């Protein structure tokens, strides 16, 4: 990713003249249009290039307008940030309020019998994507198989994914807590376990200023604050997270997004800052009652456009720490993740309809029907009891009983792999037995 062009700078002696333009009605519509989508300078200069006024002058007028209406946040008395809530932003927040905390909780959208299965799948997706954003090199299929089998990680990439998975599952235990430095260190320690060059850096703030953020070309794009300020900065960070709404109301999704940005900006750790920031984002929204966020993989959407994610950070920092760019990008990824969840649920509803023939087999439950469909679709599929247990988020004995039921019908066989691990696969005459059982169920 190339470094974005920085916006034109406004000199002190220009301010008075720029204020005069704000009262000129002929520019009101242009200013309004410029702020609806909140373009950054590199896009702005092409979209607002008219004979009436130069794009640079209009940018400066719009910048003053944005600065006047912005909400402001100060960390450690030195680091100043601001943001604006556009009409589009407010509309998205309203829609998230309706959906992420309530309406999709109904039985008709996520059946109670399926919630555990959907939840485990979503946590796996988030753990994998968040790790891949930080360089984990493995496929989703292999990573999911490792998690379902509870297999020991083979390499650092798999360890990163396992750490993310375990950490996300623990976040629910922290939703009744106020954010503290100790909790942040605990999250970081969990998320970086056995993946850092120096194990002593797990759950520890960096002890030097050697850490800088670079792009894919090796160019420095961000220099974090001095490490000697970290204790104070992170205390202010926690105070911002724990601030009561009657002190200063900031919409919970906006506050969670700002927490995500600030941790990346402060960069308190030698590694794992992004994963920790995204974990805190999830923690805060769960704490505020947005329970459906647990079913959404934000990182998977970010992974589709990592360049845009990086640009959202840089646009905000380059434009006088205007967080609006990062907020707008984050809301867009949340919207995509929400749409992806709805599509996933619809696919699963269709899948349940497709397993009707399996369900009419005598004494076959929903979990067994889904196992049969997987074996029907993937003849070479193999699985263990532990993998079935984790796939359906059920007890080990329940998974074992499900498999034994299918084995009793002669639909699956078992073999011993490695150190006495039982592996199950479909029987050679699977199709014939299945057809016979379905015919008997229909009789």
Q: What portion of the residues fall into strands of 2 or more residues?
A: 5-15%
Largest sheet strand order: 5-7-6
In CATH, the homologous superfamily of the largest domain goes by the name Fido-like domain
Helix content: 55-70%
* CATH fold topology of the largest domain: Fic-like fold
The number of strands is 7
Q: How many structural domains? A: 3
End-to-end Cα distance: 63 Å
Rg, Cα atoms, Å: 26 Å
Write the layout of secondary structure elements.
Layout: H1 15-22, H2 25-36, H3 41-47, H4 55-69, E1 71-75, E2 79-83, H5 87-100, H6 115-133, H7 140-149, H8 156-170, H9 181-192, E3 213-214, E4 220-222, H10 230-242, H11 252-266, H12 273-287, H13 298-304, H14 306-318, H15 324-354, H16 356-359, H17 366-377, E5 382-383, H18 385-392, H19 396-408, E6 412-417, E7 421-426, H20 430-442
Antiparallel strand pairs: 1-2, 3-4, 5-7, 6-7
Helix pairs in contact: 1-4, 2-4, 5-15, 6-7, 6-8, 6-13, 7-18, 8-9, 9-12, 10-11, 11-12, 13-15, 14-15, 18-19
Please characterize this protein's 3D structure.
A hairpin with a 3-residue loop joins strand 6 and strand 7 (421-426). This protein has helices at 15-22, 25-36, 41-47, 55-69, 87-100, 115-133, 140-149, 156-170, 181-192, 230-242, 252-266, 273-287, 298-304, 306-318, 324-354, 356-359, 366-377, 385-392, 396-408, 430-442; strands at 71-75, 79-83, 213-214, 220-222, 382-383, 412-417, 421-426. The protein has three domains: 12-69, no CATH class; 72-346, Fic-like fold (Orthogonal Bundle); 355-442, Orthogonal Bundle (Arc Repressor Mutant, subunit A). The chain has a three-stranded antiparallel β-sheet. The chain is mostly helical. The protein is elongated, with a radius of gyration of 26 Å. Helices cover 58% and strands 7% of the residues. Mean pLDDT is 87; it is low at 103-109.
């Amino acid at each position: 990713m190339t470094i974005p062009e920085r916006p034109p700078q406004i000199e002190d002696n220009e301010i008075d003249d720029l204020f005069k333009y704000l009262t000129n009605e002929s520019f009101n519509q242009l200013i309004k249009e410029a702020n609806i989508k909140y373009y950054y300078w590199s896009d702005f200069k092409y979209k607002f290039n008219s004979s009436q006024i130069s794009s640079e002058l209009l940018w400066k007028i719009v910048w003053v307008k944005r600065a006047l209406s912005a909400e402001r946040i100060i960390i450690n008395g030195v680091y100043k940030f601001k943001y604006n809530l556009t009409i589009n932003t407010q509309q998205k927040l309203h829609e998230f309020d309706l959906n992420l905390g309530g309406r999709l909780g109904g039985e008709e959208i996520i059946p109670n019998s399926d919630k555990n299965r959907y939840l485990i799948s979503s946590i796996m997706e988030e753990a994998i994507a968040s790790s891949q954003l930080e360089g984990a090199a493995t496929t989703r299929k292999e990573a999911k198989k490792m998690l379902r089998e509870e297999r020991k990680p083979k390499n650092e990439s798999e360890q990163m994914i396992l750490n993310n998975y375990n950490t996300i599952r623990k976040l629910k235990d922290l939703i009744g807590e106020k954010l503290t430095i100790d909790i942040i260190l605990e999250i970081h320690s969990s998320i970086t376990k056995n993946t850092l060059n120096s194990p002593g850096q797990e759950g520890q703030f960096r002890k030097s200023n050697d850490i800088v953020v670079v792009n894919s070309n090796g160019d420095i794009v961000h220099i974090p604050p001095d490490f000697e300020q970290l204790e104070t900065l992170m205390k202010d960070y926690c105070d911002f997270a724990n601030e009561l709404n009657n002190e200063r109301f900031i919409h919970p999704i906006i506050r969670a997004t700002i927490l995500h940005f600030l941790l990346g900006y402060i960069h308190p750790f030698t590694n794992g800052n992004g994963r920790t920031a995204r974990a805190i984002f999830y923690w805060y929204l769960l704490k505020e009652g947005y329970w459906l966020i647990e079913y959404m993989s934000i990182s998977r959407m970010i992974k589709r456009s990592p360049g845009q994610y990086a640009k959202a950070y840089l646009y905000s920092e380059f434009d006088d720490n205007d967080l609006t760019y990062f907020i707008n990008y984050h809301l867009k990824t949340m919207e995509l993740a929400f749409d992806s969840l709805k599509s996933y649920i619809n696919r699963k509803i269709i899948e349940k309809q497709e397993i009707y023939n399996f369900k009419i087999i005598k004494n076959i439950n929903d979990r067994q029907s889904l196992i049969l469909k997987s074996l029907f679709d993937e003849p070479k599929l193999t699985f263990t009891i532990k993998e079935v247990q984790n796939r359906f988020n059920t007890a080990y004995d329940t998974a074992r009983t499900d498999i034994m039921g299918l084995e009793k019908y002669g639909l699956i066989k078992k073999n011993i792999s490695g150190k006495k691990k039982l592996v199950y696969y479909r029987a050679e005459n699977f199709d014939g037995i299945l057809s016979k059982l379905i015919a008997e169920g229909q009789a």
